[in-house]
Design a protein that fits this description.
By secondary structure, the protein is α+β, with helices and mostly antiparallel strands. The protein is built from 17 helices and 15 strands. It binds protoporphyrin IX containing FE.
Length: 467
C-alpha cells in the first residue's frame, strides 16, 4: 500500500505566547508538560519552542526509527547554531572542507575512543586522577561539596588524558572557566550575549587559549584530529576544541557525581560495589606511580554491578531532547520526508519543521520501569543491551537512550563509562568517603535538553585517605 495514504498531521498544542510558545513550560517542568500533552493528544503532537514547530514523539518504539533515519534527518544545523552562539564556533568553515567536516571528525573520534587507544587513555586518566585525589584530599579529613569535588577531578584528569600534558596545570582555573560557561549554557543558547554574564568572555578566552596546539602525551584521538584538520585556522580549531571539551565534560561530570552519590549514600549498595571493585582491582598486573594497582580496561570490564548502577543513574538523571530536521546538502535539497511511526501513522515532515524525541518519557514510564522515581541499583543487572524491557507488550530496541543514535551517536560514550567507573574505583581503593546528607536532591530543571540534570543544591560529604 502507498505509505502516503496514511499521512495524518499531528495535533498542534495551543499556546498563548507567540514565538516562545511552550518554551517556558518546557524549561520549568518538561516532564509535566509532556505528561499533560500525552493525556490530551497521545504519543504524537506538535509544540512551539522558540519559534520552531516541533513534532514530539513520545512512543518509545519510535526512538529507534528517528535515529535510524540519521541520513535524512539530522541535528547538525541546530548544533551549528548552538556552537556559534555559545563558543563562536564556525561550523560552516569546517564543513566547507570534506576532510574537516564535522561528521568525518566525529567518525574519527569514534574510531579512537575504543579498543587499545581507549585503554591507554583510561590508564593515563587513572594516573592523573590518583594524583589529583591525593592532592585535593590531603592529610586532613576533607570536607566539601560532592558535585564540585567530582567535577574538578573529572575535568582535570579527563582533560589531561585527552588533551595532553600540562593542559590542566592550573586545574582550578580550568574548572571555574568550564563551570561558568556550563552554568549559563541554557541562557547563551537563548541568545544572552557573553558580555552580560560577568567573567564569561574572559573564561571563553582562557579556554580557547589552551587549545589549537598539539601537546605532548595527548590521546590518539587528538593526534588523529590534528592530522585530519591540518591547515585549518588555529583559532577556529581552538574554538572547536573548546566546544568538544564542553561536550566531553558537561554530562560526564554530572553523571559521575550522581554515580558516586548513589554508591556511597546507601550502605547496602556501597558494600556490594566495594566488594566487586576491590576484587577486580586486585587482579590488576600493573601499578601506578604511587605503586597502587593500575586501573585498566580489563579491570573495569570486571565490574558488572557497577555498570548496573551507572545505567540506573543514567536512566534517572538523563534529560535529552533530541531534535532533528531534514538534512539539506549542497548537492540535494529535500522538500519533505515521510516517516512511518509505530502507531501506523505516517508523519510528513517539511523542511521548516522539526521532529524530536524525549527519551525521559520512556525512562520514567511505570509500565517499563516499575516505580520509576526510585533508584534501584540492580534494575539493569544482566539486562544491559537491546530488547530487555517492553512497552505495550513489545520489546523496546533501546530502552536506555542517553547517547543519541545513528551517525551522530556520541563517540565518547565508552570513555564516559570508563570515567564513571574509574572515579568510583579510585575512591574505593584509597579513601573513605561519607555522604553527610543522603536526601536525594531536587533536579535543576533548567538543564532540560542539555543531556543530564544537576541537583539544585550540592551535596556535602567528607573524605579521608584510608590509613
Ligand atoms: C554522560 C556522558 C555523555 C553523554 C550523556 C553524552 C551524550 C551525547 C549526545 C546525546 C550526543 C548527541 C548524539 C546525537 O545527536 O545523536 C553527543 C555527541 C557528542 N559527544 Fe557525547 N556524551 C557524553 C560524554 C562524552 C565524552 C566523554 C566525549 C568525548 C570524549 C563526548 C564527545 C561527544 C562528541 C564529540 C559529540 C558530537 C558528535 C557529533 O555531533 O557527530 N561525549 N554526546
Amino acid at each position: 500500500m502507498d505509505q502516503r495514504v496514511n499521512i495524518q498531521p499531528v495535533e498542534k498544542v495551543k499556546s498563548w505566547l507567540p514565538w516562545i510558545g511552550h518554551g517556558l513550560q518546557f524549561i520549568k517542568d518538561a516532564d509535566k508538560l509532556m505528561a499533560q500533552c500525552y493525556a490530551k493528544h497521545g504519543h504524537e503532537f506538535q509544540l512551539t519552542l522558540g519559534g520552531r514547530k516541533v513534532t514530539v514523539l513520545l512512543n518509545p518504539h519510535d526512538i529507534a526509527t528517528i535515529f535510524g533515519e540519521s541520513k535524512r534527518l539530522t541535528g547538525e544545523a541546530l548544533n551549528a547554531e548552538i556552537s556559534l552562539k555559545v563558543f563562536g564556533m564556525d561550523y560552516q568553515y569546517f564543513n566547507s572542507n570534506k576532510q574537516w567536516a564535522f561528521h568525518s571528525l566525529s567518525q574519527d573520534f569514534a574510531k579512537h575512543l575504543r579498543g587499545d587507544a581507549l585503554d591507554e587513555m583510561t590508564q593515563v586518566m587513572h594516573q592523573h586522577m590518583e594524583d589529583a585525589m591525593f592532592r585535593r584530599v590531603g592529610e586532613q579529613p576533607f570536607e566539601g561539596q560532592l558535585f564540585d569535588f567530582v567535577g574538578r577531578l573529572i575535568v582535570e584528569a579527563g582533560g589531561e588524558a585527552m588533551f595532553g600534558q600540562g593542559f590542566a596545570e592550573d586545574a582550578d582555573q580550568l574548572y571555574d572557566d568550564f563551570a561558568l560557561i556550563d552554568d549559563h549554557f541554557q541562557s547563551f543558547i537563548g541568545g544572552t550575549p557573553k558580555w552580560l554574564v560577568r567573567g564569561a568572555r574572559k573564561a571563553e578566552q582562557r579556554l580557547n587559549a589552551r587549545f589549537g596546539n598539539i601537546r605532548k602525551g595527548q590521546a590518539k584521538v587528538m593526534d588523529s584530529r590534528f592530522k585530519l584538520v591540518q591547515g585549518a585556522d588555529s583559532f577556529k580549531m581552538a574554538q572547536q576544541d573548546t566546544a568538544m571539551f564542553w561536550a566531553a565534560q558537561s554530562n560526564t561530570v554530572a553523571i559521575a557525581a550522581y554515580t558516586v552519590f548513589h554508591v556511597m549514600r546507601d550502605p547496602a549498595v556501597k558494600e556490594i560495589i566495594v566488594q566487586e571493585v576491590t576484587a577486580a582491582v586486585q587482579k590488576s598486573s600493573a601499578t601506578t606511580r604511587l605503586a597502587k594497582p593500575l586501573i585498566t580496561q580489563g579491570v573495569l570490564d570486571k565490574m558488572p554491578k557497577l555498570d548496573a548502577v551507572i545505567d540506573e543513574t543514567l536512566r534517572l538523571y538523563s534529560t535529552g531532547f533530541n531534535m532533528r530536521q531534514i538534512a539539506q546538502t549542497v548537492e540535494q535539497r529535500i522538500d519533505s520526508v515521510d516517516i512511518g511511526l509505530d502507531s501506523g501513522r505516517v508523519l510528513s515532515l517539511d523542511a521548516a519543521e522539526f521532529v524530536a524525541i524525549y527519551p525521559r518519557f520512556m525512562h520514567m514510564h511505570p509500565d517499563i520501569y516499575s516505580r520509576p522515581e526510585q533508584f534501584q541499583w540492580d534494575r539493569f543487572l544482566g539486562k544491559q543491551g537491546p530488547n530487555k524491557f517492553s512497552y505495550q507488550s513489545k520489546p523496546i530496541k533501546n530502552s536506555l537512550s542517553v547517547f543519541g543514535g545513528g551517525v551522530g551517536m556520541c563517540p565518547g560514550r565508552h570513555f564516559a563509562r570508563n570515567e564513571f567507573k574509574l572515579i568510583v574505583a579510585a575512591l574505593i581503593n584509597d579513601f573513605d568517603l561519607e555522604i553527610l546528607d543522603a536526601t536525594i536532591p531536587a533536579n535543576d530543571t533548567n538543564r532540560v535538553g542539555l543531556g543530564s540534570y544537576r541537583p539544585l543544591q550540592d551535596i556535602p560529604f567528607t573524605c579521608r585517605i584510608r590509613g
